C-alpha cells in the first residue's frame, strides 16, 4: 500500500470491523467493536489492561479467531471465505497467505531464538515467498540498517538489548512487505531507557506513510504519531477521534477519567 | 604475635598472616579411595586372567565383524527409533484425538514390555502369521523374511521409538508459544513453523537425552544375541563356548564398548556446544563482541 498521495477515489479500508465479538470461555472480551482504518493511516488504540485491545489486534491476523461480526483487512474477510451463501473456514495455507499481508510486532519481541538477527529477518521471505537468499539477505541488511542496527547482523537475540531485539522484530515484520503493520504494546516489555529508540523507529515508519495499527500505553507517543486514536474499555470502543482532539478534548466521561488517571500518576513523556 | 592496638582498643590485624582451615577428613577419604583402588587392581593382576588372550582376540576377525554388526545395528535401530519417535510425538501433540490415542497406545505397549520380550516376539512372528505379503502381488513365509537382523532391527527400533517419542514431545512443548505465533505472523504454514522454528529449538533440549539413548542402544544391541544376531557379545560367546576363556572374551567386549561410549560422549558434548551457540551471550566464534554499540 502506497502513501496517501496515490489513494484512488474509492478506497478500500485497510481495516474494517463491524460489531466484532470474541469470547474466551464465558468472558466476552470484545463486545461489538466497529471501526475503520484508512490506508496510510496510523491508528492508535489505548485503554486499560484487559480492555481487549491486544485481542482485537490479534484478531486482525487470525492469531485469535473471531466469534461474530465482520472483519475485513484490505477488503478481504479475515479467517473465512464467503461462498454459496456460507462462510467457509480458510485452510492452513490460505490463512498463511492472508497473514503474510499483515506484519506483527509483539510485546515480548518473539525473535526466533536460534537465529541471528539477519536470519530472523531473512527466513520469512525465503521460506514463505521463495525469495532468492542473496536478494533476501541484501534486503534484510538494508532493513536492519534502517532500524539502526548496522553491523549487528550476526548477533543472536540473547546478545541484543530489549530495544535492539524489538527493532529486529520490526525489520522482520517489514521484510514480508506487508500492507499493514500491527504493533502490540511494542514498548511495554522494555526498560524505560530503551523505549525511545523503538518509538523513534516506529515514528520513522509513520512518516513513510505506512498503514499501522498501534496498541500502546505511551500516550504522548499516541498523541504525536497517530492520526486517529481509539479508546477501548471492557471490550467496547468508547471513543475514536483524531489524536489531538481525543487527548485535548475527550467527549466521553470514561475517556476523560482514564486520561486524567494516567496523567496524574504518570506525567506524559516527551 | 603482637597486635598493635589503636585508641579504640580493637586490634588492627590487617597485616597478620592468615591460615586456611585444614580438612583432615578429606585426606582420610582420599587415602581410603586410593587404597581400595590399589587392592582391586592387585586382585585383578593376580587373578586368573590370561591377558595374552585378551590382546590376541581384540583384533580377531570374528570380533571385529561382530563389533561392526553392533555398530550397524546401533545406527539403524536408532535411526528407526528417532523416525518413529518423531511421528509418534507429532501424533501425540496433534489436534486429532484418534491420532493422539493411537500414539499413546504405541508408547504404552512398547514402553510397558521388556525389549528382551519384544525381540523374541518379532523373531517368532511366524508363529502368529505363518505367511505374509501383499495379496496378489507378493507373498513369503514369515520365517524366511524375519531374519535375526530384521527381528533385531524391528525389536530395538520400534521399542526405541516409544522412548524417543516422549523425549521429542517434551522438547517440542518446551518451545515458547510466542515463537509459534511469530512464525505464523510472517506467514509460515503449520509444517513450515515446525520445520524452521519449533524443531530446531526443540533439538537443543532433545539432544542430551537422545545422546544417552544412543549410548543405551549401543549396549542394548547385545540383547539381540538371544535371537542369534551376530553382534559382538554373540560372537564372543560363540568363541568362549569353544575355548573356555569367558572372562578374557568379556574383557575384549568391555574394551570395545568403553572405547565406543567414550567417543560417543565426546561427540555428544561437541554437538551440544554447537547447538547451544545461540543461547550464549558471547559467541565463542566472535569474542570481539563486548563493547555494546548502541
Question: What does this 3D model show about the protein?
Answer:
The complex is a heterodimer of chains A (270) and B (294). Chain A contains nine helices and twelve strands. The model of chain A has no long low-confidence stretch (mean pLDDT 90). Chain A has a domain at 13-101 and 208-263: Rossmann fold (3-Layer(aba) Sandwich). Chain A has 270 residues and is α/β, with parallel strands linked by helices. Chain B has 294 residues and is an all-alpha fold. Chain B has a single domain (51-268), classed as MetI-like fold (Orthogonal Bundle), CATH 1.10.3720.10. Chain B has a two-stranded antiparallel sheet. In chain B, β1 (131-134) and β2 (138-141) form a beta hairpin. In chain B, α9 packs antiparallel against α11 (246-275). Chain B is flat. Classes of the chains: A alpha/beta (270), B mainly alpha (294). Chain A: It is a peripheral membrane protein. Chain A: This is Amino acid ABC transporter ATP-binding protein (PAAT family).
Q: Which SSEs are present, and which pair or pack?
A:
The complex is a heterodimer of chains A (270) and B (294).
Chain A: E1 15-24, E2 27-37, E3 42-46, H1 53-60, E4 68-73, E5 76-77, E6 80-83, E7 86-89, H2 92-99, E8 102-105, H3 117-128, H4 133-146, H5 162-175, E9 180-184, H6 192-207, E10 211-215, H7 219-225, E11 228-233, E12 236-242, H8 243-248, H9 253-265
Parallel strand pairs in A: 3-10, 3-11, 8-9, 9-10
Antiparallel strand pairs in A: 1-2, 1-4, 4-5, 6-7, 11-12
Helix pairs in contact in A: 3-4, 3-5, 4-5, 5-6
Chain B: H1 24-46, H2 51-58, H3 61-92, H4 97-112, H5 115-123, E1 131-134, E2 138-141, H6 142-145, H7 148-173, H8 177-185, H9 190-220, H10 232-243, H11 246-275
Antiparallel strand pairs in B: 1-2
Helix pairs in contact in B: 2-11, 3-4, 3-7, 3-9, 3-10, 4-7, 5-7, 7-9, 8-9, 9-11, 10-11
